[in-house]
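Lab meeting, item 3. Inverse folding demo.
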């Protein structure tokens, strides 16, 4: 059998890539070295501590938001159940020395307000960071999320680490 594309790896990214290509009329072979396909949630242990590297949660799954549109495009939305975030703080960052705690609220406005309250001297960098994130999010379109790269929407942001980007702010 002849294929237009061979996708190596049947994790979440490989399966999504194969599905998008197939939805666009391509003949696709999806190849996986493990006995079963699927986004396996792997973990590893380092110095006695288990680190879960799998998918935990995601925002933008509300009606009409990017992941809702993406899953509808893939034909998977009926298979996914969602639970809304706690709007006042769905995730927590905590340091011991110096003692510091930051709760990540839902939404750009709430996040900006909380970040500026915690880091008032970084207002300009916070605004610049959130503007770039909003630009990238807005550039994502319904047809194929990866098209944002091919259309140049992520130009300059697709080849820089988050650390380098934040250090530049």
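The presenter then showed the designed sequence:
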């Amino acid at each position: 059998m002849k294929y237009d594309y061979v996708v190596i790896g049947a994790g979440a990214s490989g399966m999504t890539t194969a599905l998008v290509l197939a939805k666009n009329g391509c003949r696709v072979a999806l190849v996986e070295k493990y006995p079963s396909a699927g986004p396996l949630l792997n973990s590893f242990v380092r110095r006695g501590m288990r680190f879960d590297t799998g998918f935990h949660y995601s925002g933008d799954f509300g009606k009409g938001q990017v992941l809702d549109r993406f899953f509808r495009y893939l034909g998977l939305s009926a298979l996914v159940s969602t639970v809304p975030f706690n709007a006042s703080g769905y995730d927590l960052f905590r340091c011991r020395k110096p003692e510091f705690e930051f709760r990540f609220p839902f939404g750009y406005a709430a996040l900006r307000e909380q970040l500026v309250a915690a880091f008032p001297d970084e207002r300009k960098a916070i605004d610049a960071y959130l503007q770039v994130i909003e630009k990238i999010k807005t550039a994502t379109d319904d047809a194929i999320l990866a098209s944002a790269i091919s259309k140049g929407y992520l130009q300059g942001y697709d080849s820089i680490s988050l650390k380098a980007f934040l250090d530049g702010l």
